[in-house]
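TASK: fixed-backbone design
INPUT:
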């Protein structure tokens, strides 16, 4: 049966977390359940730059991509009732934390390295994992980023073994 939440957050929701944590999936579900505007940062950057993320990384490098992400976050400062699916590396630049917190609640989605691997192993549009598509590399990079993710988060939601509907309900229960 359709379960549609009627309450809306009075500010924005930023979904952060490692690749494959489910940010894009959960953002689309939150849009549906809470009637929010949806922004998929990776897709918007691809549209604005006219090329896929892999090509932005290959042509201009990761630092350039990180600058595009920060510029985009700054441009969101006047948004309301919007769910933003961030790229998995949004926490790499320290200033991004403040930009998210100024205009919304930051929700960290987590998943084990094994779950991440299962979810992203067939993906060809995640340049950070090109040539490193294995559980050990994923676990190592998660560990390197862990403190950054945790510092940025208002709430943390584990996603292993949960359906997108369950995860959305948990987010709504905890932030609305
Ligand atoms: N809770 C979940 N349970 C099962 N599969 C999921 C879940 N969340 C996401 N997925 C799947 O994992 C893959 C990666 O999800 P995605 O939303 O793109 O992650 P992210 O945006 O965090 O990188 C997709 O194929 C998606 O369908
Ligand atoms: O973790 C990262 O550094 C990245 C995650 C990707 O987003 P997803 O987390 O949606 O895959 C995308 O922004 C880019 O490939 C870099
Ligand atoms: Mg995504």
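OUTPUT:
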């Amino acid at each position: 049966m359709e379960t549609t939440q009627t309450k809306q957050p009075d500010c924005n929701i930023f979904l952060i977390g490692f690749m494959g944590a489910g940010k894009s999936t959960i953002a689309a579900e939150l849009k549906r359940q809470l009637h929010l505007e949806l922004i998929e940062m990776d897709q918007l950057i691809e549209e604005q730059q006219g090329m896929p993320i892999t090509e932005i990384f290959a042509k201009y490098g990761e630092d350039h991509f990180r600058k595009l992400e920060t510029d985009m976050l700054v441009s969101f400062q006047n948004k309301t009732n919007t769910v933003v699916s961030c790229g998995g590396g949004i926490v790499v630049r320290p200033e991004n934390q403040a930009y998210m917190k100024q205009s919304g609640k930051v929700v960290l989605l987590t998943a084990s390295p094994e779950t991440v691997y299962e979810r992203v192993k067939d993906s060809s549009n995640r340049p950070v994992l090109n040539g490193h598509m294995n559980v050990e590399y994923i676990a190592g990079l998660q560990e390197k980023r862990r403190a950054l993710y945790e510092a940025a988060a208002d709430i943390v939601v584990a996603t292993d073994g949960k359906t997108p509907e369950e995860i959305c309900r948990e987010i709504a229960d905890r932030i609305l």
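COMMENT: Residues 17, 19-25, 88, 119-120, 159, 162-164, 167 surround adenosine-5'-diphosphate (ligand 1) (CB under 6 Å).
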